[in-house]
């Protein structure tokens, strides 16, 4: 029997309560119940060394803001290694990191033990980076802390674990998985305020439906995300579908093609 992939995720934060958002709802809650994932939310204050449990101090060099101390992160790290005899894979969410996408999520989903260090304020003492394996940004904008990015990353990577999402094909059909956007979805009623579900989806002809959806994905990607389409390597079937799309367009309205013919 195939070994079930499990993942252990530890998060170090000064706001553990924020993580109730992902732990208590939907597929992640179910994945925790099914023990596909263990998510430990740890309070950074528990790793401080002084009685006031201070986690940040003013930065050196006349900075305005506060900088998070290196010590609590290192204490956590040392304890983790001591108790398990091996290093976890440490992720530091930060605007300076590699920009997050589905491919990076897929890579992270392969790890057995992940640790997220959530920073706040002006940032974390630079020396923490020495024990970080991957710095990850969720986009070119600035948030006040690493908690929301950590939740974004966890939710994305958990979708790749077998058993977290109902069916494997629904993950494989997701936007970006194969370099294309997802096709359109419809449910009941067939006629909603005069808008009809495409006939073919009611036909029961699985092969034609598959091609119809592929066509929809290709068109959507070209129209909404041409940058993705340009990067996509097309297989023979996809090329054939594109030829068909252009031929249909030509047959419907040859005049649209006139200008390019004149060039
Ligand atoms: Cl990972 N952290 C913060 N604080 N801001 C961000 C980010 C991460 N990614 C984009 N902006």
Tell me what portion of residues adopts beta-strand conformation. 15-25%
Q: Tell me, what's the shape?
A: elongated
CATH homologous superfamily assignment of the largest domain: SPOUT methyltransferase, trefoil knot domain
**Quaternary arrangement of the chains shown?**
single chain
Helical percent range?
Answer: 25-40%
Please tell me the CATH architecture of the largest domain by its name: 3-Layer(aba) Sandwich
Low-pLDDT regions: none
* Rg (CA only): 24 Å
What is the CATH T-level topology of the largest domain?
Answer: Alpha/beta knot
Q: Tell me how many strands there are.
A: 9
Small-molecule components bound:
6-chloroguanine
Helix vs. strand class: alpha/beta
Profile the largest sheet.
Answer: 5 strands, parallel
How do the strands of the widest beta sheet line up side by side?
2-1-6-5-7
In whole angstroms, the N-to-C terminal distance is 62 Å
Domain tRNA methyltransferase TRMD/TRM10-type: 7-229
Subcellular location: Cytoplasm
EC number: 2.1.1.228
Subunit structure: Homodimer.
Description:
With 263 residues, this protein is of the alpha/beta class. It has 2 domains: 7-166, Alpha/beta knot; 191-252, tRNA(m1g37)methyltransferase, domain 2 (Trp Operon Repressor, Chain A), CATH 1.10.1270. It is 38% helix and 17% strand. It has helices spanning 20-23, 26-33, 71-84, 102-109, 147-158, 168-173, 206-224, 226-231, 236-252, 258-262; strands spanning 7-13, 37-43, 56-58, 66-68, 89-99, 113-117, 134-137, 191-192, 195-196. Strands 2-1-6-5-7 form a 5-stranded parallel beta sheet. A two-stranded antiparallel ribbon has the order 3-4. Strands 8-9 form a two-stranded antiparallel ribbon. α4 packs across α5 and α7 crosses α9. The longest helix has 19 residues, at 206-224. It is elongated, with a radius of gyration of 24 Å. The structure holds 6-chloroguanine. The site of 6-chloroguanine (6GU) has 13 residues, from β5 and β7. The site of 6-chloroguanine has 13 residues, from β5 and β7.
């Amino acid at each position: 029997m195939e070994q079930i992939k499990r993942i252990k995720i530890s998060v170090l934060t000064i706001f553990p309560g924020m993580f109730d958002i992902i732990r208590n709802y939907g597929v992640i809650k179910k994945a925790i119940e099914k023990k596909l994932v263990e998510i430990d939310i740890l309070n950074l204050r528990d790793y401080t060394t002084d009685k006031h449990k201070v986690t940040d101090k003013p930065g050196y060099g006349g900075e305005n803001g506060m900088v998070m101390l290196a010590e609590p992160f290192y204490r956590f790290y040392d304890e983790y290694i001591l108790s398990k005899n091996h290093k976890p894979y440490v992720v530091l969410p930060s605007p300076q990191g590699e920009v997050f996408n589905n491919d990076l999520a897929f890579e992270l989903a392969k790890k057995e033990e992940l640790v997220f260090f959530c920073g706040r304020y002006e940032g974390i003492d630079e020396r923490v980076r020495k024990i970080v394996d991957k710095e990850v940004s969720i986009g070119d904008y600035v948030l006040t802390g690493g908690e929301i990015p950590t939740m974004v990353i966890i939710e994305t990577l958990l979708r790749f674990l077998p058993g977290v999402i109902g069916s494997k094909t629904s993950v494989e059909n997701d936007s970006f998985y194969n370099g294309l956007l997802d096709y359109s979805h419809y449910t009941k009623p067939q006629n909603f305020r005069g808008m009809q579900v495409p006939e073919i989806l009611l036909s029961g002809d699985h092969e034609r439906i598959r091609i119809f959806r592929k066509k929809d994905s290709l068109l959507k990607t070209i129209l909404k995300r041409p940058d993705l389409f340009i990067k996509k390597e097309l297989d023979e079937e996809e090329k054939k579908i594109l030829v068909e799309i252009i031929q249909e367009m030509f047959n419907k309205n040859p005049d649209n093609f006139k200008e390019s013919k004149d060039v």
